[in-house]
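Saturday, quiet lab. Running sequence design on the structure tokens for the scaffold JK sent over.
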């Protein structure tokens, strides 16, 4: 069994420890990839996360407001306004009046910003898809179930850290 550091959860088996270490390594690699993406496009971490929120919303056909971005990123109204102002000034986003409620302002990706992700991350997505083809359907379902559970744990941790809102 691995050495337990102060503050760590109780004993786990070696396979669980190995999976957790791999997740930590994966998280570090993903964070570094996001940093390099931001550096390549002169955007900071919050801006990159905001773009990801907007890309996901566009895929799902959802409208996004500044408030929704703020809630997703855990930013104050003033911070999200400054963030959106920077992204509008850099040509990544635009503000539009909601056609259903002219009092509401929607935040939209500019086509050039929407193309940044696929251009940068596309080769990685192809490589990952190619590697997943080595797994049978049952294995892919297990991986999906595990990743869903891991994401749920991360979200729960984030929400515990944020504490009650109100």
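Result came back. Writing it out in full:
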């Amino acid at each position: 069994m691995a050495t337990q550091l102060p503050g760590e959860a109780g004993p786990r088996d070696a396979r669980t420890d190995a999976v957790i270490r791999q997740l930590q390594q994966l998280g570090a690699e993903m964070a570094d990839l996001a940093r390099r993406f931001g550096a390549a496009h002169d955007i900071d971490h919050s801006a990159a996360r905001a773009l990801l929120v907007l890309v996901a919303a566009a895929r799902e056909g959802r409208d996004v407001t500044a408030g929704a971005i703020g809630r997703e990123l855990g930013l104050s109204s003033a911070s999200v306004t400054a963030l959106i102002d920077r992204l509008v000034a850099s040509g990544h986003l635009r503000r539009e009046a909601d056609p259903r409620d002219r009092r509401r302002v929607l935040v939209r990706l500019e086509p050039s910003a929407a193309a940044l992700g696929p251009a940068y991350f596309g080769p990685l997505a192809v490589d990952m898809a190619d590697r997943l083809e080595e797994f049978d359907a049952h294995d892919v379902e297990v991986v999906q179930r595990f990743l869903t559970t891991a994401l749920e744990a991360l979200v729960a941790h984030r929400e515990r850290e944020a504490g009650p809102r109100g």
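Notes for JK: The mean pLDDT is 88. Residues 92 and 113 are 5 Å apart (CA to CA). Ask whether to fix the surface positions before the next round.
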